[in-house]
Structures are given as C-alpha cells and as structure tokens.
Amino acid sequence: MVSPRRSRRRRWASLLGATALAVTAGGALACPAGAADNVDFATHCIPPAIAGIPPIDGTTTAKITVDNTSPKVGDTVTVTYTVVKAAASNPTVIDLPADIMTPTGVVALGGAQTGNITVAGPKKNDPVPGNGAFPSFSMTGTFTVTSPGAITLSPGDYNIHTSYILELDTVCTVTNPPAPVSETITAADNPPANTRNLALGSASGGPGDPVGFTGGGFTAGATVTVAGRSGSVETADRTTVTADSSGSISGSLVVHDLTTTGVVAYEGSAWSSDLGTSTAAYVVIDDTPVPEGSQKLTTTVRAGDLSMEQSGDSVAMSTVDFGSGDPSTGDLNAVTVKDYRGGPAGWSLTGKVTDFSGPGAKIDAGKLSWTPVCTTKADSPSTCQAGSSGVVGSAGATLASTPDGTLTGGEFTAKAGLSLDVPAFTPPGSYAGVLTLTLT
C-alpha cells in the first residue's frame, strides 16, 4: 500500500470547534491508494550473447502501484513497476557486486486509456552470486490521464542492464501480452486546460541513440519542443515538431547527455505546467570504456515526493456568549509541506469547510475566515507564498503555494488564524465543521 504521507495528492480533514458554542476534536486522513495485486506472467528472456546460454522461458512475478487511484483527467500519476521475482538470473558464473544493475521497462495501459509508460529504476541492487537469482527491483515513471473511466495497468517488458567488467543486457519480454492487470485506477471526467502527454518508444539507450516518441493534447499546428532533462534542468538534447490537426506529435530525439533522467515536450519558449507534459523516464547507459588503470565512479540523486503533515487534527475555538455576536477564534494547526520532487512544478495547498452543525441549527460555512501565514525553510529552492485573507467557505480558498520554476522544492510551514462569525442569537450548544486541506 502506498503510504498516505507519500502520495502526490494528500487530503487531510480537521475537526474545528469550541465548547458551549464550539468545536471538539476528531479528524481523519483521506484514504491512500489501494493495494495492488502481485501477478505472474510467462516471460521470454534473452541473456547477453557473451554468456553463451540459450533464451530463458520462465515466470515473472510483478506488481504495479500508483500514488493516486482516483485522479482527474489532466492529473499526473506516478507509477511504480516492481519485479518481485525476475524470470531470469545472473547469466554468468561471476559474482556481481552491489549497485551495478539499472532496470528499465514499460507498463501497459488499458481500458479507458491505452498506451505504454516507460519506467526506470536507480542503479542500486544487493550483490548477486554467480548464476544466482536477480533481486527484486522497482522502476518508476509518470503519465498524464487523458480519458475518464477505469484505466488498467499491467506489467510489460523489462530490461536488466548490468555495468560490471562489461555492459550487459538481459532483455525480458511478455510472452503473451498483455500481462494480467495488477492495478486499476478510476479517472474522473473533469478535464483541465492541459492534457498534453508524451510517451517514449524506449526507456533507455546509449549516448547518441535516437529514442522515438509520440504525444497528444497539443494545440493543432503548434510548434512543440521535445527535450531531454537532467533532473529539473533541461539539457541541450532537443528537437522540434509540429502538432497535426488533432494535436498529436511523433518523431525521434537523439540523446547525448549522460546525465539524462527523462524527456519532456512543451509549447512555447520554455516548459510550463500549463503548456508542457510530465517527464517521461529515460536513462542513458554510459558504455564508454574506462581507460586502463582507471575506475568510473557514479552516483544517483533520487527524486522524492510531495507530501504534507499537520501538527494536530483538532482545533478548540473560543467560546462565544449567546446574544453577543462575537466571533469564535482559533489557530489552524501548523501544516508542514515537503516538496522533494526536484522538478519544475510548484504546489498549491487549499482548504474548504463544511457548515457547522449543532443542536437543531447550523452556522453557514461562509462564516469561517482565515488569515494565512507561510514560512520557508532556509536553503529551499522555492519560496512559499501565503494565500489571501478572507472567507474559506464551502467553495474553498488557498492557504499557501509555490510557483513553477526551473528547480523547485524545499520545506515549508503554513498556518492561519481562524475566525468564525457566529450570529448573535445562534442557539446554545456545540457546533462542529470539517475543514479539509488538499495538496496538489
């Protein structure tokens, strides 16, 4: 199960209140993404030619997980493909040391939306004995939801690249595609302005190799830039294509930069969340020979997630005397937002509140106002911006946000002073409303 604190979209509920006329506790975290199923499927693996052994026909056990099982059209969903048990094993009698495996693969979409998602894993593994089984490994990638309805995700072909003495590949394909469905998400029909998407023909290649791409959702006739990314920074590897009358694009991009971690496409002079796609995972396999007497040193900076935590789940607001017309006040529990994605996208933290229900009466949600405050932890690439003071209500308002940028991220703390405008002759008793915070 994906942890609620590590999903891309978090929903927290806080119960507001005071005594006499007041809000008392209780709160809940929204449900996390559902658990995915392990699936078994027949796999045909081709060991490196140098191993001198025939193809291997075996069974792969794998599962697909996502960070959001209920997205809306236009949302970006992060997909993790975990090979629990590979069909192939170390094709050599040589013991393989730790951190020399780089897995890549594809995830097949079906149902309301079809296509393939390229996924890639970090260069990280436990030692593998000669002819021993490969350890479990995970690969991640993203896709943009373009159609409402049930979307199935099935594990696809995968490649195990090892970088030790020689650069070797063990290529494993699904014998009878598609493999069984491991995860299903249900997308809501709420299309935003941006449904641009990009898919790659391969998740890896050597320096200077072309990678094919297709995409859609662009403005008909627009010039679209397709470019490599190294983390959040765009590389010099790029090409331009023209979107056809249906907004689709296709072509190939030659990738030279060894630090490439993905590819994006966008309209305009630079990538933006309004006119660009999410990043399609891609890895350049450095097969440059190491000079005699030298050692090649590599490391990986792994991207994290967008998450939030709140310091409490209840607020006891001040008591108000019957007939006084005074406001009931309190302070929202501090909310800490951690953006460790290392990409170009900012975030927005919004809140909305229900009516305050009491003994045979209610206080309208529109009577709750807040005064937001937001601080940024030192050395954070982004700067937090507090939302405007004013009514929260059932329609909602922004508590805090950060803008898009070349490199975003950091740690932030959002707070707010709360004020509930209680009508003077509201019947005595305890009133409770639920304030829901959503991070996107």
From TrEMBL:
Tell me the PROSITE patterns matching this sequence: PROKAR_LIPOPROTEIN (PS51257)
Q: How far does the signal peptide extend, from start to end residue? A: 1-30
Stated name of the protein: Beta-xylosidase
Q: Domain of life, per the record?
A: Bacteria
* Keyword annotations of the record: Signal
